């Protein structure tokens, strides 16, 4: 077990913590980016290695953008054009693979497979209703929107959770106990086991509710509330289509972080935390906490 002590070498301690913080931020970004590539675009490991830079460069624009995206901005336009060009090449290949696999309508391994097999209601020239396939530009527009929204919201959510763990050490310890109890080894993390993370679900909901003191989203609390009194992902036909993806990805990311590190407040930790819309809600100046290996 590693430990960092201020008495031995203050400069080394600060440097080590800085390196760990940079690693964690990169881990969050890269983890979410790879998840998006796999689940949205159904890319395998080799395709991710080849195309990750283009996808990630596009994603990284979003946390720093103003609410109004300026397509005239050269940096944004270049990243946007590169990803659109990649999708124009990638889409036909994905559709051919989908057809060759003879996928049924209900078999969708990614958002892309769902979009390419969807038929939307439209009007013909004579005004009659008809169903048609999505055009290439429409599919690309949906994919771009999904990539940006997932990356922005999930990276911000993980930052908020790290902040709350630092401010609530008792919650951090409870979450650590749940993680090590359900997943003694990393290979024990499965889709089935993720659904048993009851404490995480409470902590996540409380974080979304905004800066909690202690979790208040137990089974009993949820049963006693109206189902529409708390809607972090919306509800009904306008609800977030990426809810399950987001929850699963954030659970896996937090399992990795909580197993390896402890978080605590520092003299740079903002209390209360300043927030901004860029274009989704996120920490205005990032999250500053102490990070120590377990």
Automatic annotation (TrEMBL):
<dbReference type="InterPro" id="IPR017972">
    <property type="entry name" value="Cyt_P450_CS"/>
</dbReference>
<dbReference type="Pfam" id="PF00067">
    <property type="entry name" value="p450"/>
</dbReference>
<keyword id="KW-0479">Metal-binding</keyword>
<keyword id="KW-0812">Transmembrane</keyword>
<keyword id="KW-0503">Monooxygenase</keyword>
<keyword id="KW-0560">Oxidoreductase</keyword>
<protein>
    <submittedName>
        <fullName>CP3AC-like protein</fullName>
    </submittedName>
</protein>
<dbReference type="InterPro" id="IPR050705">
    <property type="entry name" value="Cytochrome_P450_3A"/>
</dbReference>
<dbReference type="InterPro" id="IPR001128">
    <property type="entry name" value="Cyt_P450"/>
</dbReference>
<comment type="similarity">
    <text>Belongs to the cytochrome P450 family.</text>
</comment>
<keyword id="KW-0408">Iron</keyword>
<dbReference type="InterPro" id="IPR002401">
    <property type="entry name" value="Cyt_P450_E_grp-I"/>
</dbReference>
<keyword id="KW-1133">Transmembrane helix</keyword>
<feature type="transmembrane region" description="Helical">
    <location>
        <begin position="12"/>
        <end position="28"/>
    </location>
</feature>
<keyword id="KW-0472">Membrane</keyword>
<keyword id="KW-0349">Heme</keyword>
<comment type="function">
    <text>Cytochromes P450 are a group of heme-thiolate monooxygenases. They oxidize a variety of structurally unrelated compounds, including steroids, fatty acids, and xenobiotics.</text>
</comment>
<dbReference type="InterPro" id="IPR036396">
    <property type="entry name" value="Cyt_P450_sf"/>
</dbReference>
């Amino acid at each position: 077990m590693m430990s960092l002590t201020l008495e031995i070498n203050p400069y080394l301690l600060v440097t080590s913590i800085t390196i760990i913080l940079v690693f964690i931020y990169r881990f969050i970004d890269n983890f979410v980016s790879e998840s998006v590539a796999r689940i949205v675009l159904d890319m395998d490991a080799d395709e991710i290695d080849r195309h990750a830079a283009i996808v990630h460069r596009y994603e990284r624009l979003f946390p720093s953008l103003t609410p109004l995206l300026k397509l005239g901005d050269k940096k944004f336009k270049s990243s946007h054009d590169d990803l659109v060009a990649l999708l124009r090449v990638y889409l036909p290949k994905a559709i051919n693979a989908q057809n060759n696999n003879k996928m049924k309508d209900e078999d969708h391994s990614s958002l892309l497979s769902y979009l390419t097999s969807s038929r939307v209601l439209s009007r013909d020239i004579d005004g009659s209703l008809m169903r048609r396939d999505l055009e290439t530009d429409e599919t690309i527009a949906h994919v771009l929107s999904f990539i940006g929204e997932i990356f922005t919201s999930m990276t911000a959510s993980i930052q908020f959770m790290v902040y709350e763990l630092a401010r609530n050490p008792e919650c951090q310890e409870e979450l650590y106990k749940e993680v090590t109890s359900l997943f003694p080894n990393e290979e024990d993390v499965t889709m089935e086991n993720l659904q048993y993370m009851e404490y995480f679900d409470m902590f996540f909901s409380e974080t979304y509710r905004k800066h909690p003191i202690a979790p208040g989203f137990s089974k009993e609390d949820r049963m006693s509330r109206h189902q529409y009194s708390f809607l972090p992902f919306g509800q009904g036909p306008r609800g977030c289509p990426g809810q399950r993806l987001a929850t699963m990805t954030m659970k896996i990311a937090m399992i990795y972080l909580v197993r390896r590190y402890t978080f605590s407040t520092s003299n740079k930790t903002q209390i209360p935390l300043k927030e901004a819309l860029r274009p989704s809600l996120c920490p205005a100046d990032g999250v500053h906490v102490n990070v120590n290996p377990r």
